[in-house]
């Protein structure tokens, strides 16, 4: 096929939105159990149903039939939605949040309790019970506890209560000791939490409880028992999330340097390390935006040996004896489930399942290029750049109004305590293959760069993050990577707030897209769910004492300063950011006569899961930009579904 000449942003791409959802799943929560691997597939074509799959002798089999879906809603974000014992699977069902088991291909209900949710399931072999985080929803209150669940009758027994939050209940191999995490408002778990250890008495209740690590300003992550019943955990007590071994005298730090072995606990049951045997750990860590797989010796000297792999993005590592599984990706490979063995530091691996099977030549893919820049406060900030890539096209210049530079989309990740990944992502390729450049910004407050970088955003959310994103766009323009007149910003959730704030309080971007983004902070502080209800205390200030500051940083209160087109996408059942936030912004911009669009999706929550939602939002966002920037004749632009368009 001969190369065609067409304007950036109007290239035709073989990477269609329909192809993305038809060939794209999310792989989550892999567990190595003996010779078997269990994991979850979230399938857009089944309306986001989360299916438990087992892998035996390279054969993949669904073990969770419709209509069941394995998903926890504790903290709204869930995680730890199933566990396995002796090939019996215990899982949390999405629709009712009750616990079920799968045995001999039959699904049996264990609990039947209204308004209760569970997460982080662990099986207690000695007592034939489950231990879990429990979240009870009453009319005006939400109470979190640690409970045990009798698998015969579903009866609950409270093991620990009194703290605002709990996570990571973990039993040693003899089922005689239990560790767990707890924390209280206003902390998020990455601000600070405590690690506890207790013995279990004859009835299975905790006794002799003691606080062994962490604190109000020290974050602990992933406590885990080794095969010989030594307790390990990750802590940021020295400013970086490092691995430690618990000791009655002094906890021993096993890793050093500017490396992050931990993650922010947005979800339960995350895993960045696993035990190969009594003396070695397989782990991954981040340093300067790069992720590396390594082995760590648990005996002195504690040597960290990096393992060369084709991947630089890892997730959910698990092992049982010499059998290992994890999720891996790179800038040229989609996330995939890997089965591996390790012998003398040599990793032998094979792919079990790829999350995306686009039948497209790799020459259509744009690979992430890591870069850094200095922001206006003389601080280093990191980002990943994706150039427009499509071998079928070159750019068409159209007079002085269209430069030789592409339109640039700044991506704001969520959280804001999150991180932009360099993993190959079909949704990013949707844009780059159409002639857009992308810059995915790890603005101040992101994870992966140490505690100081993460805490830069304290008191400055809605200011420093938007400044970093604006400075990132300016840096790209200065490098000749983008057209300064076609700068776009898009983001979801907290990233959507950064989008709306940047469009309101700065004058850099010409258009934006907010996916279930925050526009009004006071109502968020007053009405959001329990897990994040005090999140803003550190990001902005205590509420209601500093209510004035919340109002000042709310885009809805300063729409007179917003003067560019915006498109909104929102789920009607979102309990984190209610759809009223998008509706108010839409109405305000419509009254100003600005080009504005909004699309509301029935039955979608905080994060889109259905195939139709994903395809429509991508296509309509593209059409919106093509219309605003006149990248395509107006009579050729089509919007799909029930979308509201004003002043366009």
Automatic annotation (TrEMBL):
Example GO biological process: proteolysis
GO molecular function ontology, one term from the record: serine-type peptidase activity
Pfam families: Peptidase_S9 (PF00326)
Domain Peptidase S9 prolyl oligopeptidase catalytic: 426-630
InterPro entries referenced in this protein's UniProt entry, alphabetically: 6-blade_b-propeller_TolB-like, AB_hydrolase_fold, Peptidase_S9_cat, Xaa-Pro_dipeptidyl-ppase/CocE
Name this protein carries in UniProt: Prolyl oligopeptidase family protein
